[in-house]
Structures are given as structure tokens and as C-alpha cells.
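Quick start: read one record
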Amino acid sequence: MSGSIIVINPNSTVAVTEAMDKALDPLRLPGGPKIESVTNPDGPPGIECQAHVDDVSLHIRNIIRARDAEAAAFVIACYSDPGMYAARESTSKPVFGIAESGMLSAMSLGSAFGIIAILNRSVPRHIRYIRSLGLEGRLAGDRALELPVVELSNESKTYERMVRVGTELRDLDGADVLVMGCAGMSRYRARLEDQLGIPVVDPSQAAVGMAITAVQLGQTNGRLLQPVAQAAE
């Protein structure tokens, strides 16, 4: 399978896309697939509620349709995995959501994972998704920074809160591995892991790593026929 891994930031904040893309540099290997990060210009500044998740699902499918011929795989880089199942019906290429990929990676690194969310109102949405995947037995806790996506670039404020929330997940909830609950947190992963002394998973890196493996092995998402015809939207 030839082509690029297209990493879709469903929100419209270019700074989030750029920070995430920089964190993917270690995965750009000689002879490996090209990794391209794109921003959804029609999305909200951040995906912060269920309405945002629902609204951007169509945008994601439109991006996938537009880039399908040149893509080897897609990554949906939002921790709610918006529109992932519909996206998988729109292409035969593998489609990875960063929440699912991040949690699967975390479970290979520890026995109980904790999630660092952006907002308290994100937590119920995470829990619903975790239950739908049957992973609640491995969840230690889900705690929020109470910072919107657009404020994650404030390094001193964000990192201080990540340390505090990560410490609570480790010491109070029993997490032995953490998952960062937003693609915009990428820049803090290594520093946070060093400070807390437990593994910290950047879900975008986890999803792209899985995509690289799928591309190198020539895997599809199981849809070998033409994509399902789309109803008028």
C-alpha cells in the first residue's frame, strides 16, 4: 500500500495541528510512509462538547473522501474519535482514532490507565466511549485540567496543571500509565513522563504508530469493496 498517513485535526486551531505534527517527527522514519497533518478549517477552535463531536463528523468524512486516493491510512486526531465508525465506512484505508489507540497503547504499558482531560465536561463523554469499548475495568480515573484547547499553548499554566492532575491520577486513583486526553498536549509528554516516573502516552503518536504498522503490512480496514454510497447530507 502506497500513500501518506493523513492525520486530521478536527478543530480549526492551526497551532494544535502544528504542535501535534512536531510530536510526530520521531515517527518519520527513512523508508517509512509520509505523515501529513491537516487542519479542519470548518471546525470549532476546540472539540469540547458532544455537539462539536457530532458536527465535525461530516467534516472528517469530507476530508477523507477528498484525500482517499492519495492516502494509505487516516488518523482522527481528537480524543473523542469523532465520526470514526462512519469514516471507516467511507474508505477501505485503515482509520485510527487517537482515543482508542491511546488507550490500547496504555494498556500494553501498565495495568490501570488514567486520562488527563481538558475540561470536566469532557469526562462523561470519555466514560461513555470507554464503556462502549469495554475498557472500563482498566480505567483508574479521568481528571480534567479545566483548560480549553486554545489555552493549552500556555506552557507554564498547562504544564503545572498537568503535573497536578497526573499526580492525582497516579497517587489517588492508582494509575500506573497516563494518556493525554487531547492532541494539543503533545509537547508535554516527555517532560511529564520524566517528572511523574510513569509512562505517559501521546495518543496521536500511538495512533500514527499503529497506522505505520498497518501501512507497512499492507493492511486495509476490511472494506475491500467500493465505499458505501453516501446519502445526501
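The radius of gyration is 17 Å.
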